[in-house]
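User: I'm putting together notes for a lab meeting next week and I want to include a structural view of one of the chains we've been expressing. I don't have a solved structure, so I'd like a prediction I can at least talk through. The sequence is below, exactly as it appears in our construct file.
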Amino acid sequence: MTLQRLAVSGYRSLQNVVLPLDRLTLVTGTNGSGKSNLYRALRLIVTAARGQLVGALAREGGLPAVMWAGPERLSRAMRQGQQPVQGGSRQQAVRLRLGFAADPFS
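Assistant: Thanks for the context. Below is the predicted structure for the 106-residue chain, given as structure tokens.
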């Protein structure tokens, strides 16, 4: 099976990420841009596929530790880098979504 795409929503610093994958995908970025969290999300998907999700979440520090820590809505100033992205108290239910797309014939 060849992974074609990785999707992460609401995991740590990754609000909504869809990453197309190739045979070799190199992820680069500045410190604090989410590279490690992307790797951790992929590792969490693998452990879920093995039926070990509960243990993996416990090792991550529990469900609150893996949830999106930013604000419920990003303002225009935040998206444009004019204001820091900071979390606050939650008014709505939170959701963590991890997934992948694969070609089963590879």
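A couple of points you could mention at the meeting. The mean pLDDT is 79. The first helix runs from residue 35 to 49.

User: Perfect, that's what I needed.
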